[in-house]
Amino acid sequence: MQDPIFWLTISGASLIGVVVLAWTALSGWRGWLELERMKLQGQHHAPSAPSAPSPAARIELADLKERVRKLEAIAAGVDL
User: Domain range for residue 32?
Assistant: First the structure.
């Protein structure tokens, strides 16, 4: 275990690991700061009233509900 190549390899791999972890932590920190900045900027705007869903969206939602109902029936073993 006195081989210097072994210790250089372990040291290099450890250094690379620390750099990757630091880079990831810094990226997460920057993302969190940006999220908080967006939250603060959003507080200055008046909340908008929710708009009514379009007819196409309601049809799509009804279609998805029908598909879910059919899949639940298949999972329960019921013949349609």
Answer: 1-48
pTM above threshold 0.85 = no
Average confidence score pLDDT of the chain:
88
Residue 51 DSSP label: P
On the question of pLDDT at 42 being above 90, the answer is no
Domain count across the chain = 2
Do 44 and 59 fall into the same domain?
no
Determine which helix (DSSP H) or strand (DSSP E) holds 14, and give its type and residue range: helix 4-42
Q: What CA dihedral angle connects 42, 43, 49 and 50, to 10 degrees?
A: 50
Contact criterion met (CB below 8 Å) for 80 and 70:
yes
Using left for φ > 0, alpha for ψ between -120 and 50, and beta otherwise, residue 3 falls in: beta
